[in-house]
Amino acid sequence: MSTIGLQRGGTAGKGRRRGIAAVGTNVLALGAVSLVTDISSEMVTAVLPLYFVLTLQMSPAVYGVVDGLYTGATALLRLVGGYVADRARRRKAVAGIGYGVSAAAKLGLLAAGGSVPAIGAVIVADRAGKGLRTAPRDALITLSAPDAGLGRAFGLHRAMDSVGAFAGPLVALGVLALVGAQSPGAFDAVFVTSFCVAAAAVVILVLFVRDRREARPPAHCVSPAAAFALLRDARVRALLAAACLLGLATIGDGFVYLLLMRREEFGTGWFPLLAVGANLSYLLLAAPFGTLADRFGRLPVVLGGYGGLLAVYLLLFCPLSGAAITILTLALYGGFYAATDGVLMALAAPVLPKALRTTGIALIQTGQALAYFASSVGFGLAWHSWGPAAATRMAAGAVLLAVALTAVLLVRPTASGEGARA
Length: 422
What we know:
Blueprint: H1 2-23, H2 25-55, H3 60-71, H4 76-88, H5 91-112, H6 116-144, H7 150-179, H8 186-208, H9 224-229, H10 234-248, H11 253-264, H12 271-296, H13 298-315, H14 323-348, H15 357-386, H16 388-411
């Protein structure tokens, strides 16, 4: 029996080593950085809607602007960070600066107090950090794994990322319980704890992530002219247009959770658990969806994810309610992110030249982030003008239209070459 056990252990060990080899140890290290960073960021994200709407008494329209800023206002910095990372071939350094800026911004929330302009400035700083780090990080993933395994690599990374997203709201809930949710300093305690966790992520990046500095390409390959030339490629233009369309159809997480809380009449203390439920679904589905994308095609998985988002919007105002509908809504919402977040980047990577991989990814992410900003502001205004039910039905229609147009855009330009796997 002991021999059989050893054989099984040896086989399992070889399987684990093969799995790590398939995605690369650098992907695992980047996943660890994202895991810890997401604990920090989701601690704040989980309480911000309550802080803004209940404590600061923001209207849905004002919250829509602030929520849009949280993702879209500094999107252009993605292009700057992406180009600098490609030009200097120091993707890790640019990503590290971004992680550091976001960590420092957590302390800025303490100084902002109840001032909406100050909060907006801090959020811009935090998202500036995210804008700088996202494209270099994703480019490092594409350069650390084989093209055929990019879906799996991004799936593993996003699964690790979602472990942090799952844990973050729980940590925030624990801090609020420890300090007292009604205590004047409750949110400050969350912000300070979030900063400490974010600083730990920067340390992990410095110690364990390796840069991928391939042979220096000719100067003309990494230049402003070469970056603009990316847009002459029909496949890149199609991906950019699709990313913008899909971004326009996506409203902020905070809106989804606020609508769920409104419908089910949860107490405010339970609000962070809504993000926990969605992130648990994301955690469980990210790696399997990444593997499915590599095996059966990345575009069908992305479009299927947006089909899940359409179902979420419809469920928010369906006649049924209760725990089962809430769980189904959160499961579909997490599944939407699992099927789209990393898979869209895996779909784009083979189309982009390695010398400008970070710039190209940043271009697509910038388009999506700016579209998301417009969507969040628009949804907030629609809620304010026509009510949440009408606004959500409009969002559902936008998803349906975006999926149809994305299918038309991406099927033809990717019908040959590497894109055929899309």
